[in-house]
Amino acid sequence: MDFGRPMVCNPGVVAKSNIRLVPETYLGDDPLDILVCQASNDAAKDLFLGNDNPSSDSTKKDTSSEPTNDTEKHLSRVDHALYAEHHLPAPRPTIQPGDLVVVFESFNDLNFVYATPNEVFSNRNGHFPHHDFISKPYGCKIRSKNNNGLGFLYLLRPTPELWARSLPHRTQIVHELDASMIVHYLNLIPNMVVCESGTGSGAMSHVILRSIAPKGKLHTYEFNKIRADKARVEFQGHGLGHLVEVHHRDVCGKKALLNMNQQESNQPAASDETETDEIKDKDSADDGKGGFQLGESAAHAIFLDLPEPWLAVKHAAFTLKTSGRICSYSPCMEQTQRTVVALKQYGFHSIQTVEARLKEYFVDEVEMEAPPTVLPAIPTEETATLEKERHVAGGVLPKEDSEVNSDIENAENKLQPGAKKRKLCARPFSQMRGHTAFLTFATAGGSMPRIPDKSSM
Amino acid sequence: MTSTATPTPFTTTASPMDANDPPPTLRPYDHFLLHFADSRQIFAQAIPKSRHKSPSCKTYPPCKINKRTYATHNLIGLPYGTVLEVTRDGLLPLPEGQDLLPDEEQVREALLGVTSLDGDAATTTHQSEMITASQDSTLHITPNDNRNIHDTNTSQTLTQQQVTSLLSTGTDGCQIVAALISNSSTFASKTAFSQAKYLKRKQMKYMPRCRIVRVTPESLCSAMHAKDSRRICNLRSDTLGYILSSANVSAGQRVLVMDTAVQGILSAAVTRRMGGYGSVLALFEGQQPSYLEVVQRMNLNVMERQSLKWVGMGEVFGSEEEKRRQVEVLRDESGNILDVEKRDREGIQWPCPLMSHTRNYLLNEVKEERKIKEFLDKRCSRFARKLTRLSMLELREFVASCKERDENGNSVDSAVDTTMENDSTTNSIPRGIKPNGNSGTTNPIRQCDSIIIATKYDPTITILRLLPYLAPSCPFVIFHEFLEPLLETFRTLQNYGTQGDNSDPSMPMMCRRNIAINLRLTDTWFREYQVLEGRTHPNMTMSQNGGYLLMGTKLCPKTGTNEMDPETVRMLRAKMGPTRRPKKGGKEKGGEKKDGSGGNDKRKSGGEDDAKQEAKKAKTSS
């Protein structure tokens, strides 16, 4: 995807500004010139370090000590040359062989292809040779080769949202509104280190990757080996391999927990045994101990999409940096409750559980007619006789002139100009996704137990 | 200068942005938020005691709680997440591990010390036991309920005057809470949950605490929404998150933001999400953006500030002719355009030596060293600002480089002909093209990767004028406080050319021209929960509206829309046999299509069916 591409850098106006630290005697030995240099250096520090400016720290007591490495590191950043503008190169305007293309068939039918010469994409509307796709611009409309070209589809540039709607579902995927909220509430910004468990179909991973590019790292954990391997291949294929590391691992460490339970009870239940065997079969690379294996305070944010997220909370507390954010995604309130208890136990604060739903509207132009105003005809002596005669004759008597006239009048009434009004209207669709999951967010506290202890399990 | 004009691979240059750790502690001049247990959210700034000059320092009250101003210098260096106690002496940081609500233990201890007004020590002890009981309460049968509690407003024997006198004598909040509990005749007969709730309420009032929270797009938006949601057109935080995702905002992109209706929250949020990579074109009205204060609260660093480019709305919506005229005036005899701002900027040296008259002024008139320093500080900051600012002409050139051009290199003025507002004479694909001839726009075209609109201007006209700035197959999102204005926009984007009374009702569906597909009109429903053992439920009040969104994907204007003329379509249709469409008004029925969906022209799907299909799909995938 586009955000995974290497960036180009241009000297922006800041990089050209030549603002930097200068020796105090740069302009000469005159005391006034020295003051000018000092003021310039201060302004440069303010500009580049902003609130990080070590010189403005003087109110703090502990900075009175000799300049630390930290200050030097700070000051080395006061240099215009470091602040070139980085941006993604202009997106490739046309489709090249091998590109991932989202095929927009209709609103609910999205698909994807890797443009490959000599292959054909077929759906109910016709056959579309990939050959037609190549070197066409993204956002174009393609006509089918058969069916007289009546069938068509659109080719779109992939985004994580479009990908989520077209991808092969290996598991239930995180809904796009939930995914957007997770990234937003986890405060993800470029270059962060994020952990995700489990990977599932990889839809959420793509959304996270977009917000941590270009130099961030996503560690994604999946206990199902097949899914992990598939995801790895997929990320590579989308040009995101440098941003992600797929771990085949159960972060909860259920295997170890189950073993412990067995040792404690000394009489393992039959069901337990089969379960552990199953895990053993799947997990060859996984040591079964759980945890993220990244060391202490390694991640800025953690996203848990697990059946038993509370088991992973202590590992998350160990792996998260202070003030790092965590999100747990659980469809059931019971899971959420247990997770909240675990979060409190491990020193997380600002715990917030929310739920969001997407309501979509159907737009239509509605034609509204004024109610009819034609009065019902009250029978008169004349019409009554006529009717009687007609009845006697079997209803075949010709209409009289007056009747014909009134028919025309009625027709005119119906066609009264201006009686119809057209209005744009909207209503929500009659069905919606009623529930996806409860999202629990929390912030890691500074005083949480750093080493996962066994007693609290 | 190390950087060259030619683009170099990103990996060769190390950037200070590479380690993009959010600062763990409060730095001087940082803006931050204070979150209270009663969900109040207050903006504050850390201002050192001796006020330094700083680019971000304004005469902004450091922190104002309940009409009282508190100093914030003692908070500098504290980690985010620290809990503060609001006392009469100021904001006092509490040790780590403290929560927003004080420990119940504390009140219990105080309760043991307090004798109620009637001197009945026995009840007090009993009540302190009650609090203990409330802690390990689960779903057992509760001994108490409200069968004997009557709302006569007489249960509290402590009078208002007594409480105020306690407050004015500087009694500890904890003591007051204890006194209130011990003087409440009904406390003991309340259920454990009810007691906990009572205690919480009293603690929030008499032992106020708050937490230092980082300003992020999320916390910024929720704080502003909580403070005055009308001012930001009800933009709720979850909607903001959804906008950022649907607009595909990521590092390195070029994003056009027009957010005059939401106080610049979107510009700030997009800038932070992009982390200083790429460019944000933030449109503003008037001479300068009126909501810089909001953007400043994000504590943007130099890279982020550089990526955020403020563009006057006239640059985008103004006529090309007028722009050209403005530039022509600047042309000198040899035909070159003189950019005064740029010339001045390039003339500034760093550090800038003093001119002789300034030197004289400082030596002879200012004299005092402190004042000279102040003068020089201001002078250098001014130069730094000037050196890091694009000139108006450079900015104009930059904006022009984002705009679609036709075959002749002239910029396209609108996604469709601007005469559409008056009357469209033909149903052909019109395009308003105005001769450009501005030789200044030499930059290669690099259209925007997404457009985000949140204004009170007509969304239809706005998006049609902005679409030429958007690259094909890229998303746009329009936020609006109301639903109705977006309906027209939806219709226009979906069905341009067949709307209005001028359109030919017999024209086949196939000939309508959609400018964008994947159109969705949505709003979000957002609910918070109280999760407590045995007491889990949604919050009693919730926000009913977070604003409406219209989003879509732009189609390629050349190859993405209908390439067939009505005659060909009729011919094709005749070949294919009779249509299944009812005779009456193909257009109205066509409207049932949810958007410009592809597929077979003959096939027709109702929007309702779409929703059902989607629901079915969701069911099968779960």
UniProtKB/TrEMBL annotation, chain A:
GO terms for cellular component: nucleus. One of its GO terms (biological process) is methylation. The keyword Disulfide bond does not apply. Its EC number is 2.1.1.220. Gene3D superfamilies: 3.10.330.20, Vaccinia Virus protein VP39. Residues 58-73, 277-289 have a biased composition (Basic and acidic residues). The keyword Nucleus applies. Residues 151-254, 285-443 form the tRNA (adenine(58)-N(1))-methyltransferase catalytic subunit TRM61 C-terminal domain. Pfam families: GCD14 (PF08704). Its main location: nucleus. Residues 47-73, 262-291 are annotated as: Disordered. Keywords: Methyltransferase, Nucleus, S-adenosyl-L-methionine, Transferase, tRNA processing. It is found in: Nucleus. This is tRNA (adenine(58)-N(1))-methyltransferase.
From TrEMBL, chain B:
It is found in: Nucleus. One of its GO terms (biological process) is tRNA processing. GO terms for cellular component: nucleus. The keyword Membrane does not apply. It comes from the Eukaryota. Residues 1-16 have a biased composition (Low complexity). Residues 1-26, 409-440, 559-622 are annotated as: Disordered. The keyword Nucleus applies. Residues 409-429 have a biased composition (Polar residues). Belongs to the TRM6/GCD10 family. This is tRNA (adenine(58)-N(1))-methyltransferase non-catalytic subunit TRM6.
